[in-house]
């Protein structure tokens, strides 16, 4: 199993941020944290894509990811998850191809249809309904692959058009960087995943993930796609400490993650290393091969270090 770590791009009060120990985001903290995660042996850095979230600064995803490429050497670099509607797909193909080149083949690209309407409208974007955004996402993924591998690409879609576009320099990875599709929509998102994705990522408790995986497998059958060829990835926020007393102290500071405050669509990794291992094993039994963790004590590395030292080795 591989473990990726979120490098936050926004903090403060919002429906998105749950980082109680970081009042304002800054690049030195992101940089130091990313370097520390590589030193601890994590497999990759995941960078959320938002342009306005929380009540403080929000750092742009692709620039942040590229900067992290410059201060790390081996970690997967995982924009997760690009809000497709906020990006011109062909230009995204050029930018991410170059990111794969400058990182020497370390890009894994997460793609999604977006969910946060207010940030889009704040920056002057329209906001089509979800089915339209998902159809646009599917066309973008097709164009990404075409431009990542071609030098004279023409594509005439409903949402995306190119005519004689040159995708060079192509990514280092052959045939192209892996594409993750994030989201749990059963009619559109999981169908797009089955047809186009290398990785699928979602969040939630075991029963919910099991159901979504069943739907994904059904879509794979429809497209005659090998279900096992898609890496299954799960996202969770994490509060981990060595003793029950320390966990409770942390929960008192972040009551959002107390059991009574977690609804039945959520799941957080909360507890001692032994308890975290037991929880992760339940998801591993579903076929989860990748876990993306956001440590709630960011920018501290206390939780991440304990996870790296006592949890991750159980899944080597």
UniProtKB/TrEMBL annotation:
Using the record's annotation, list all stretches that form the Luciferase-like domain.
1-253
* SUPFAM superfamilies hit by this protein: Bacterial luciferase-like
| Superkingdom of this protein's organism | Archaea
From the UniProt record, which GO molecular function terms apply? monooxygenase activity
Q: Which UniProt keywords apply?
A: Flavoprotein, FMN, Monooxygenase, Oxidoreductase
Gene3D superfamilies annotated for this entry?
A: Luciferase-like domain
- In Pfam terms, one family for this protein is Bac_luciferase
Q: Tell me the InterPro entries matching this sequence.
A: Luciferase-like_dom (IPR011251), Luciferase-like_sf (IPR036661), SsuD_RutA_monooxygenase (IPR050172)
Does the record carry Flavoprotein as a key word? yes
Entry-linked PANTHER family: ALKANESULFONATE MONOOXYGENASE (PTHR42847), ALKANESULFONATE MONOOXYGENASE-RELATED (PTHR42847:SF4)
Name of the protein in question: LLM class flavin-dependent oxidoreductase
């Amino acid at each position: 199993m591989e473990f990726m770590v979120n490098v936050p791009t926004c903090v403060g009060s919002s429906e998105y941020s749950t980082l109680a120990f970081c009042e304002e985001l800054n690049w030195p903290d992101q940089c130091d944290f990313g370097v520390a995660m590589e030193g601890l042996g994590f497999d990759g850095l995941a960078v959320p894509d938002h342009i306005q979230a929380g009540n403080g600064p929000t750092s742009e995803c692709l620039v942040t990811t590229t900067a992290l490429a410059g201060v790390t050497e081996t970690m997967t670099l995982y924009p997760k998850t690009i809000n497709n509607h906020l990006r011109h797909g062909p230009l995204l193909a050029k930018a991410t191809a170059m990111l794969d080149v400058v990182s020497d083949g370390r890009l894994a690209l997460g793609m999604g249809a977006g969910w946060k309407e207010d940030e889009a409208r704040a920056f002057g974007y329209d906001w089509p309904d979800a089915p339209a955004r998902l159809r646009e996402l599917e066309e973008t993924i097709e164009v990404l692959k075409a431009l990542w591998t071609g030098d004279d690409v023409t594509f005439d879609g409903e949402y995306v058009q190119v005519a004689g576009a040159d995708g060079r320099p192509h990514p280092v990875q052959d045939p192209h960087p892996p594409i993750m599709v994030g989201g749990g929509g059963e009619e559109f998102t999981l169908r797009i995943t089955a047809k186009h994705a290398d990785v699928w990522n979602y969040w939630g408790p075991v029963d919910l993930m099991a159901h979504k995986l069943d739907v994904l497998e059904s879509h794979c059958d429809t497209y005659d796609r090998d279900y096992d060829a898609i890496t299954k990835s799960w996202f969770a926020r994490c509060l981990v400490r060595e003793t029950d007393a320390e966990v409770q102290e942390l929960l008192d500071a972040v009551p959002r993650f107390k059991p009574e405050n977690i609804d039945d669509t959520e799941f957080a990794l909360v507890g001692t290393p032994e308890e975290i291992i037991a929880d992760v094993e339940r998801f591993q039994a579903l076929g989860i091969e990748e876990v993306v963790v956001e440590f709630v004590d960011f920018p501290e590395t206390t939780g991440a270090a304990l996870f790296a030292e006592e949890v991750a080795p159980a899944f080597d």
